[in-house]
């Protein structure tokens, strides 16, 4: 009988924590060993509703191999009818003592980073979101060719809440 109870408890826990009704789109792309500065990570999204307002997030998973306290990204949203919005973003990734920020119990930390708030997808069709890193070492003009310590890059859309 205890074995049956264990399975029921495990199933209940998985259902409660495994369901995320707040997401409209949530996808990750793995970064092999290093993220090259010229490597674009792209996501193709077809929003379900053109009347609702959404919040957009960039999700980053890092390991202890990530040696910077911040992260610069260049993101671009390509609309179905040709419009493009390009942003240069900066995020804090570590505390002043060097400890990586984010959620996680192991050396992998997940960061849910605000990208855009109150977005309305008013064009019907596919939107393409591209993300690339734009990291530089202090005092250097040329960017970091291969960024270490990032394992996955994700993109997430959630309904905006008032």
Give an overview in words.
- The chain is mainly β.
- It has one domain: Jelly Rolls (Sandwich), CATH 2.60.120.
- 10% of the residues lie in helices and 44% in strands.
- It is built from one helix and ten strands; from the N terminus they run αββββββββββ.
- The chain has a four-stranded antiparallel beta sheet, with no helix packed on it.
- The chain is globular.
- The termini are far apart.
- About 6% of the residues have low confidence.
- Keywords: Lipoprotein.
- This is Gliding motility lipoprotein GldH.
Per DSSP, the total helix count is 1
Q: In angstroms, what separates the terminal alpha carbons?
A: 47 Å
**Rg value:** 18 Å
The biggest sheet, with number of strands, parallel, antiparallel or mixed sense and barrel status, is: 4 strands, antiparallel
Q: How are the strands of the largest sheet arranged?
A: 1-10-4-7
The CATH architecture designation is: Sandwich
Query: What is the percent of helical residues?
Result: 10-25%
Please write the CATH class name.
Mainly Beta
Strand content: 35-45%
Class from helix and strand fractions:
mainly beta
How many E strands? 10
> What is the arithmetic mean of pLDDT?
88
